[in-house]
Amino acid sequence: MASFGATxxxxxxxxxxxxxxxxxxxxxxxxxxxIDAALEHTAPLVDADGDxxxxxxxxxxxxxxxxxxxxxxxxxxRWVFEPFIENPTVGRLLASSKHTFVHDHSRRVAxxxxxxxxxxxxRFQLDDVQLATGRRLCRVxxxxxxxxxxxxxxxxxxxxxxxxxxYPTFVLEIFYKNESLSDLRATLARWMDGTxxxxxxxxxxxxxxxxxxxxxxxxxQPVVESRIDHHATPIRWAGFPVAALYxxxxxxxxxxxxxxAMVNVDIYLLRESLYGPNSAATGAxxxxxxxx
Length: 292
Hints:
Structural class: alpha+beta
Number of domains: 2
CATH class of the largest domain: Alpha Beta
Strand order of the largest sheet: 6-9-10-11-12-13
Radius of gyration: 19 Å
Order of helices and strands: HEEEHEEHEEEEEHEEEEHEH
CATH architecture of the largest domain: Alpha-Beta Complex
Number of helices: 6
Helix content: 10-25%
Strand content: 15-25%
Shape: globular
């Protein structure tokens, strides 16, 4: 997608009142349906990472942020607001992809990995991980999924996400067809810039070449990026401390003493899980699926 005029969430709010705008998204949905049905070799473009691209779908060329939020939440699933440089409260509403099985399967694999490890640390004595999931909306974009510790409130270093609610501590983004790696990098960077998000984790699933790219932001640490294909040997582990998930609240009693323990993403296992939707990693191999 095109470059954002605003690179930070700090000066944007989604609190302003707005009635439902009169925008016909039928043409945009038809365009997204056509992209979803198209074979990758028919794509008119190739992005910088070598994946098939059809370019962004412009849902509305000129729309207020408040209106874009309403349209995005109610009528679209994967969308982003691109503010104009001269006035970041107005911009374009863009979409690039429908929400697909690949998005949902990848999300579940990643979230189950986290859930299982938290429970495994406590020998499955942790009945409730006390983390709320959801596609959190934060000003100009909406996450594929997120985790927010129960009891987290705005105040001090815990920042307002624009709707009076705190930012989640963990954000997950899955990018697939017609969603570029460069856009994933930019999206994750925005989640970390001017927010109180502690971990932003992204997976780019290419339509060409069975390539996966994982990008992990942990606040205060260097960005980790690993490319998985037939010719690259990825970093085996990427992770973050348990404390990052529960930042701003007390750890659940069963996790006392585990603040610095690492929640690790086994990239090889994740790759195999994403390759095979019916693999053990989505069922008995993990033993428990707590996030749905």
